[in-house]
Amino acid sequence: MNNRILPKIVNEVQAVTEYLSQRFCDGVKTDLAAICQDENISLIYAEYRNHFDGMIVWDTPRFYIHINTEKGNLPDSNRGRFSLGHELGHYFLESHRAGIRSGIIPPHASVNCLVQDDKLELEADYFAANLLMPRERLRRFTGGRKFSLDIIKEISAKFGVSLTAAVIRFAEVGTHEIMVVFSQDNVVKWSYRSENFPKVVNKFKKGGPLPPTSVAGESFLKRNARYTGVEPVDFEDWFIYNDWKPQWQLYEQCCYSDIYNYVISIVWFK
């Protein structure tokens, strides 16, 4: 989510990943192993218990990237691809690489996290998203179709990324304006809007409960209320009415995790 990243870093990420994703394109997917080989990075997949997902280490004369298969980071898995893309962010971003090489930044162990606040980790996540889902490639893939969660699932399958990574990236650069709300145990952890999403006032705050009449909110408050289809909802289920509202119908669609008790809600007008 690049609104939390310095413009200088955003520009660096976009320039580097555009070059890499064009040069190392394997159909739709970016070939991460080929990038490592070209850069003479030693890539090691092994079991490291529950300590990290990925870690980059400088040991003269080269960099080593360790990927933890014990946490599901297999070479072709969605999680494994994002973990490797993230570590490549630490390698290619000049300030990260210089810090790791000089020892100012210690050997850097990274953990995939749905709620991320660390500056370096945010920057590496943004690098991974740009590398795995280049803007123009994603827009060509999704353009000209009615939006629904099915498009996000197709991005996940074709580009080799998680649903969460796919929906965040679509909100940033996709072909339809959406709002994404991530909540856990009925507490909003974060939300993100496409740049051109209508300028309306949310009926929720980070750290507070979901709006109770939203589809996501009802899934926590009512029994047997987990709806997975596209649901038409009222404007005031999600937003505060202040003398103006868009004339389009508002829709919501959710995906759920029983293991972590979270909901990802996608909201859009059409």
Automatic annotation (TrEMBL):
Lineage: Bacteria, Pseudomonadati, Bacteroidota, Chitinophagia, Chitinophagales
InterPro entries: IrrE_HExxH, Rad_response_metalloprotease
Domain IrrE N-terminal-like: 64-169
Protein name: ImmA/IrrE family metallo-endopeptidase
Gene3D superfamilies: 1.10.10.2910
